[in-house]
């Protein structure tokens, strides 16, 4: 009787970037990220988020350079194939630095700069998933007009549950189908 060798494939954790000026929001987004098994980075303003994205891209470039050199030297076909898979993954990170960016619209404290941040990210990374959240109806109308996905901020308890569901829908659309609400129609 032959024993089958079981392959253990490590499931890659989703990477999230939360941009909000309130510590209380970062507290419950930490709970959300850990409950869905995702890695989380936080920024308190768009400039800090831009620095995080830039650092991540520099790290990806550095690693791509090292792996490309290793592939050229690698003789073993299976090791070479594994390295090529890593290179393909890293090239994807250059197009989308995070699996999802969740950002507030009004920050810091009432200044609507989150929408400008979302548009600048969309300009640099057209396929990057971005989810904005706000309680300001004018800001939500503007986001709808620009085609940026959003969720409505309510009280913290409701927002935590709704945001978790929306993040799951964005990360795994086939598993968590999105149900349209009245506010989604315009």
Shape: elongated
Annotated CATH homologous superfamily of the domain at 15-53 and 99-176: Response regulator
> What is the strand content?
5-15%
Structural class: alpha/beta
Order of helices and strands: EHEHHEHEHEH
Major sheet details: 5 strands, parallel
Gyration radius over CA: 19 Å
Kindly state the percentage of residues in helix. Answer: 40-55%
Identify low-pLDDT runs. 1-10
Structure explained in plain terms:
The structure is a single chain. This protein has 186 residues and is an alpha/beta fold. The protein has a domain at 15-53 and 99-176: Response regulator (Rossmann fold, 3-Layer(aba) Sandwich). 53% of the residues lie in helices and 13% in strands. It is built from 6 helices and 5 strands; from the N terminus they run βαβααβαβαβα. The protein has helices spanning 23-36, 46-73, 77-95, 114-124, 137-146, 156-171; strands at 15-19, 39-43, 100-104, 130-134, 149-152. It has a 5-stranded parallel β-sheet, sandwiched between helices. Strand 1, helix 1 and strand 2 form a beta-alpha-beta unit. Helix 1 (23-36) packs across helix 6 and helix 2 (46-73) packs antiparallel against helix 3. The radius of gyration is 19 Å and the shape is elongated. Mean pLDDT is 81; it is low at 1-10.
């Amino acid at each position: 009787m032959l024993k089958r060798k079981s392959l253990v494939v490590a499931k890659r954790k989703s990477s999230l970037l939360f941009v909000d000026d309130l510590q209380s929001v970062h507290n419950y987004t930490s709970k959300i990220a850990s409950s869905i098994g995702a890695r989380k980075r936080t920024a308190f303003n768009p400039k800090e988020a831009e620095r995080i994205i830039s650092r991540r891209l520099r790290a990806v470039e550095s690693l791509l350079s090292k792996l490309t050199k290793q592939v050229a030297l690698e003789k073993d076909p299976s090791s070479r194939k594994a390295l090529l898979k890593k290179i393909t993954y890293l090239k994807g990170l250059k197009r989308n630095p995070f699996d999802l960016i969740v950002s507030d619209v009004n920050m810091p404290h009432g200044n609507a700069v989150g929408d400008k941040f979302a548009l600048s990210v969309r300009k640099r990374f057209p396929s990057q998933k971005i989810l904005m959240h706000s309680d300001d109806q004018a800001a939500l109308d503007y986001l709808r007009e620009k085609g940026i996905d959003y969720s409505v901020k309510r009280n913290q308890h409701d927002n935590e549950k709704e945001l978790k569901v929306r993040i799951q829908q964005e990360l795994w659309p086939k598993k968590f189908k999105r149900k349209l609400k009245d506010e989604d129609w315009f």
